Amino acid sequence: MWAKTITGNFASVIHGLNTNHLTDVVIQRSKRMILDTLGVGLLGTSTEVCQKVKQYSKIYSSDISSTIWGHLDFRLPPLYAAFVNGVAVHSMDFDDTWHPATHPSGAVLPAVMALSEAFSQKKKISGLDLLLAFNVGIEVQGRLLRFSSEARNIPKRFHPPTVVGTMGSAAACAKLLALNKMKCKNTLAIAASYAGAPLANAATQTKPLHIGNAAKHGLEAACLASQGLQGNNQILDMESGIGAFYTDYNPQILPTLQSYPWLLDQQDVAIKRFPAHLGTHWVADAASSVRRKLVKNSDNLLLLDKIEKVIVKVPEVKYVNRPSPNSEHEARHSFQFVACSALLDGSMSIQSFASENIHRPALQELLCKTQLEHPSDNKPSFESLYCEVTVVLQDGNTISDRCDTFYGHWRKPLTKEDLEEKFQSNASEVLPPEAIEGIIETVYNLEKVEDCSVLNMFLSGQSARVLPEKLHFEHSNS
Amino acid sequence: MLQFSFASFIHAVRPEHLSKIVRHRSKRMILDSIGVGLVGSTTHVFDIALKYCLLYSSVAVSNVYGKPGVKLSPTLAAFTNGVATHSMDFDDTWHPATHPSGAVLPALLAASQMLPPNSKPNGLDFLLAFNVGLEVQGRLMHFSTEAHNIPKRFHPPSVVGTMGSAAATAKLLSLSMTQCTHALGIAASLAGAPMANAATQAKPLHIGNATRLGFEAALLAARGMEANPFILDDISGCSGFSAFYSIYQPRPLSTSSECHEFLLEKQDIAFKRFPAHLGMHWVVDAALSVRNLFINYAGSFSPSLIRTIVLKIPVSKYINRPFPNSEHEARHSFQFNACTALLDGEVGLSSFTEGSIHRQELRELLHKVVVEHPEDNVANFDKMYGEVAVLLKSGDVLTGKCDTFYGHWRKPLSRESLLKKFRSNASHVLPEEKVETIITMVDNLENLSDSSHLACSL
């Protein structure tokens, strides 16, 4: 009866997946994603956009409350905690990216973490429960993305996190709330009516809200379904359902629960090394390597006036084509900016997007000499794109390099050390060292953690010394 | 630059720009919307929404329809009241198609209570903000020829309603022009729900969320949040508001500061006489006239004499339901509404109860219905018609056709009818004195010194 519709089938799977279905690869990859997302979120709490949403959300304080990452001084209701933390995660475009394209973790993690605190008196949520719910949220996103061939390329119309991210958050929360199949179906139906934001707000301060809202609205959908609200129980089947967001839409049923093949098992995420659109990561690697060649030939000095032209070969992606960005948001979405920045500095970092660096004269000058080219074999897909940077010197010489796979891409994943280093660097902006260590250790051992509220405590800045009894792992006789 | 012209309009328009007709029409809409919201507060979907919002009730300053002791935070009050307004599909409909008032009024009511005592907007400010919300919705719908017909992909209130709410609250809160621009940009990222949830219990959330999220967009813009200032333009390769349409041809609003012709001046609204999708109103009026013929013919309405009932209706999948199972489906079923009208001689609130939906005689009658889609019957609220033909076993045929139902903008409800609807709705949850107070307040809205009194009286 349930599997006759795609929607029913999804509800069935969301309901039926349990911790035994989690494979080692999935556990390992998703813990990496969790760690990275937390770090990126913690760093993001200091951004201007995050300040604004925090101010706004404070209108809604109430008795039930959840942690705001990096803050011991105030808490918010789960809905707004999910919103604020979600905004933090995407505030600098530093969060993970998947294929087909979306930012999967930011839409899900803030919601499940906020929700996990809403139970506290009634029941404990274990690390494994959290890990399972998280993965349900990721899986649903991945499956939905495969229903449309449009989704395989970098988007043009709707920003994917707002479409599939909302659905993923909803599914994850439904899982954590242990809703029955019927309510899981309704969760999906209700969430669809919150989904979908246009791409044009990318490269603006509003973009981070896309992830914040995905998390928040998915959570809300699950809560409303939990209260009995019903929607269309063929929401995934119909063209006028989730199909409304795509021009071609071919939904499929999910595999059976028997040794469930998680998408994360087959397809890892990309983790960013600097806070900018994923497409710019190819550009940074190519440009850095061109610079190394350039300075080798001239005693480690980059002779800017000798540069005549900079040609950057990338796929055609209009919203990342910005010859002279004015704000940090625009700079993070500019092939040209990253090429010039990497040429000037040798590598990209958080600092590359500071206002003084965006507006420095040397960079502006180089930008004027920069142009993009779109070779027809360079497809706008994170699976297959490449970048070639060519610097043409005044004497006619050219120095070129090409990047097919940047370090951090799923084909060349960050090492454990580098992932941790990114997390340390991010988290240390707002948390003390003991809390940072506490998070790393808790996430690495997540499947053994009995009560995941310890994670939230660290996130609010409390240190391990304060809560020895909370750091209780199952099977601690390892 | 479009957004600039919209923001400019929102920011600069003054009460003096409201013509008499616009004031008159919009006050009717406000009254009807409140009544519909009040009766909507008795629904199950409303209960769920309220229970949910009560979790977050700390800065609870805004009233909830029909619940005098209860207050919620402003955006959640807007949400809840929006859900109430659309809970029974009893709220107003415009052309091009959307439900304009429910997306705007709840936010304004909630916002009026949020503002501090020394800066409460007066009734005229309120009326102006309301009209700004309507106007923006209307103008946006004119950007796409798709919007002229009954929708198929995105539910219009969730698209333009959110934008209208953002504009209206931006106006009420006196945001600067820049802030108005950004309110529209932020709102676009909160717009758009698919049609598939129409005819389900989740549909009322579309209006609830439109009014609430537009309000949130304005609040965020007020705090300095910035969005894309070209969100209304047609940018190829990176969709803005155009994402919700396949054909999109935007145009700037006139920036003349002397006069602005509001769309409401030229195009009035339709008020529903019973709580169902607007399309049902045509077939019901046609069915009622057939029923009268039947009674003249046979002395009484006897279903056993009927062989077939033919409905001639436009093509629109989500309102073509031969055997609806829930109240939500029944409100979106040509077949159901036609048969109810034939059987009972009227369609009203009680037509959609569980008992009414599942009664034997109605189900039997439904089995006799066939639908036809004449080519000239366009799925468009300005052009469609409803025709009912009852083929009797004797061979005789009784037909009725309705081009313009009573309540449509071409045949507007009289003041008496509108008040009758309001009183009937409001008295479900409010005592008589309060009902009359609201009527008087809305009638004299321009003279009200503190518009938050309207919200307080709910």
TrEMBL record, chain A:
One of its GO terms (molecular function) is aconitate decarboxylase activity. One of its GO terms (biological process) is inflammatory response. GO terms for cellular component: mitochondrion. Residues 274-444 form the MmgE/PrpD C-terminal domain. InterPro entries: MmgE/PrpD_sf, MmgE/PrpD_sf_1, MmgE/PrpD_sf_2, MmgE_PrpD, MmgE_PrpD_C, MmgE_PrpD_N. It catalyses: cis-aconitate + H(+) = itaconate + CO2. Its main location: mitochondrion. Keywords: Antimicrobial, Immunity, Inflammatory response, Innate immunity, Lyase, Mitochondrion. It is an enzyme of class 4 (lyase). It is found in: Mitochondrion. Its EC number is 4.1.1.6. It holds the Pfam family MmgE_PrpD_C. Residues 9-250 form the MmgE/PrpD N-terminal domain. Homodimer. Belongs to the PrpD family. Cis-aconitate decarboxylase that catalyzes production of itaconate and is involved in the inhibition of the inflammatory response. Acts as a negative regulator of the Toll-like receptors (TLRs)-mediated inflammatory innate response by stimulating the tumor necrosis factor alpha-induced protein TNFAIP3 expression via reactive oxygen species (ROS) in LPS-tolerized macrophages. This is Cis-aconitate decarboxylase. The lineage of its organism: Eukaryota, Metazoa, Chordata, Craniata, Vertebrata.
Automatic annotation (TrEMBL), chain B:
It is an enzyme of class 4 (lyase). One of its GO terms (cellular component) is mitochondrion. SUPFAM superfamilies: 2-methylcitrate dehydratase PrpD. GO terms for molecular function: aconitate decarboxylase activity; protein homodimerization activity. It is found in: Mitochondrion. One of its GO terms (biological process) is tolerance induction to lipopolysaccharide. Gene3D superfamilies: 2-methylcitrate dehydratase PrpD. InterPro entries: MmgE/PrpD_sf, MmgE/PrpD_sf_1, MmgE/PrpD_sf_2, MmgE_PrpD, MmgE_PrpD_C, MmgE_PrpD_N. It catalyses: cis-aconitate + H(+) = itaconate + CO2. Residues 274-446 form the MmgE/PrpD C-terminal domain. Residues 6-245 form the MmgE/PrpD N-terminal domain. Signal peptide: none annotated. Its main location: mitochondrion. Keywords: Antimicrobial, Immunity, Inflammatory response, Innate immunity, Lyase, Mitochondrion. Its EC number is 4.1.1.6. Coiled coil: none annotated. Belongs to the PrpD family. Cis-aconitate decarboxylase that catalyzes production of itaconate and is involved in the inhibition of the inflammatory response. Acts as a negative regulator of the Toll-like receptors (TLRs)-mediated inflammatory innate response by stimulating the tumor necrosis factor alpha-induced protein TNFAIP3 expression via reactive oxygen species (ROS) in LPS-tolerized macrophages. Homodimer. This is Cis-aconitate decarboxylase. It comes from Pavo cristatus. The lineage of its organism: Eukaryota, Metazoa, Chordata, Craniata, Vertebrata.
